[in-house]
Amino acid sequence: MRKQSAWIMFTLSMAVFLIGLIFPLILVIRNGFVTPDGQLTFRYLIGVFENPIYLEGLRNSLRLAIGTTLTATLFSLPLAWLSNRYNFFGKGFVNALVLVPMILPPFVGAIGFQQILGQYGVLNALLGLDVDWLGRGRWVGVILLQSLALYPIMYLNISAALANIDHAMDEAAENLGATGFTKFRRITLPLMTPGIFAGGTIVFIWSFTELGTPLIMNYTRVASVQVFDALKEIGGNPFPFALVVVMLTVSVSLYALSKYFFGGKAYAMQSKAATTFKETRLTGIKGLLALLPFVLVITLALLPHLGVILTSFTAPGGWYQSVLPDVFTTDNYIEALGHSMTVRSIRNSLIFSLLAVFFNLILGIGIAFVVVRSTIKVRGLLDALAMMPLAVPGLVMATGYLAFSSYLANEVFRDNPALQGIFDVRTNPTVFLVMAYGIRRLPYMVRSAVAGLQQTSAGLEEAAANLGAPPLVSLRRVTLPLITANLIAGALLAFAFSMLEVSDSLMLAQREDFYPITKTIYELFQLIGTGKYIASALGVWAMVFLAVTIVGSSLLLGKKMGALFRV
Fold this sequence. Notes:
The chain has 567 residues and is mainly alpha-helical. The chain folds into two domains: 1-30 and 330-567, MetI-like fold (Orthogonal Bundle), CATH 1.10.3720.10; 42-326, Orthogonal Bundle (MetI-like fold), CATH 1.10.3720.10. It is 72% helix and 1% strand. The chain has helices at residues 3-33, 43-50, 52-85, 91-97, 106-117, 122-127, 138-163, 168-175, 180-208, 212-216, 223-230, 239-262, 284-312, 331-338, 340-373, 379-387, 394-412, 417-423, 430-455, 458-466, 471-482, 484-499, 503-508, 517-525, 531-557; strands at 86-87, 280-281. A two-stranded parallel ribbon has the order 1-2. Helix 5 packs across helix 7 and helix 14 (331-338) crosses helix 25. The radius of gyration is 24 Å and the shape is globular. The chain starts with a helix and ends in a 10-residue tail after the last helix.
């Protein structure tokens, strides 16, 4: 890549990050530290820690994040280790099913989860009990639900770490007399630590700032819900911004620690194992015992999905104190497809997501070329910024865009009603929803494009240049066709997760005319009567849609799928 072109792309990308990522975060920090008359103050930040309600919310959010990360690790670590070391009947099938929980956002799964563990739900009907499982232990339900949805991210990272361990070290340990758990504790576990920490960072940040699941589970004493309640309408209360600053500090600090300790040449993650490793074949009872943990975890993880599906086929009031619904119907799907709110939300999500993917394609390919093909010294900074949205929670970004919208509408375009309407989320959130979706999902596109370019010889582009092809012709005729599969995979993931984005959608879409799918599911769920059932039907549609895209991306990327969920 020519140095001049690299610098132009670097400058344009930095401008995008400054506008779409850095400036909104600066506004959040400013609103949390600056008084209305422009004076710097720490009163708001101190007030967060002095307010017992905010302090309780932060403690509960940390408890949820730690509990979710540990539980997800507990689910995924044994499965990844068994999959790496042994070959048994059904291994390929269960390895594919392990990723299935990713097809449903946790907050949609909460609808089915409540139907199963509610006081008049499936579990009590099955056991003949009358226990409010989601009463005092509601936080346990949130942890379990988030863990079952996020453990595939841990599984992908741990599996990649295990695959890259040089098994000559295991053999050396065995020659020195180390066996069983000692070998795992002294050799395998330290070598796979980068993978555990990489996946754990994503899971922790995700669960620490998760908004949808606590909302649906009615667990409101968490920081994310407190911010959401305080910022439903753009106002002058600075304390929610100070609370967001605290959440941002925790998330970015964890991201920085991950990059500092494991972002360099991590010994277990950078190259494939030097010594070939032959999986141990298990048959008979041993094979079934190896298969059993997969079956148990996958079955447990699919229960919320099953609950949503059954609820979507249930007539209102037709599932009460019974294991299965008493009355089945397809009316919910008919009403969901015919309901003005749902049809409009599908159209809105398609528009927002397609625009975001187009943005991702242009910017992602450009960043990938700078990172892989150029020699400019600051390309590492661009790569780090491209991955930063994984460290900045959606809740924080949404808060930043609310502040950005308020700044543009009330200060920059105050005297221009036309532009004021375009940039005011209370009037039309399209600009900020597209920006939010695009920035949040950009890492998927960048990592996919980088992987494709790393697998493609630069000599082909040099040959095209020697034959007189201009850079754009060489890009269109040579490079892009060779990395098409990677770009399609990244685009599919960016599109699917944009369609089902939760935090940005719940906070930025404030008018019903612009509700995306997830905001509509949340609003329908709160309606008395048929709302929960129509919301479930819409959730099933979203489940099927995301399943197709994840399977397609997995087929195109193969084992490189895990790189998309790594800081």
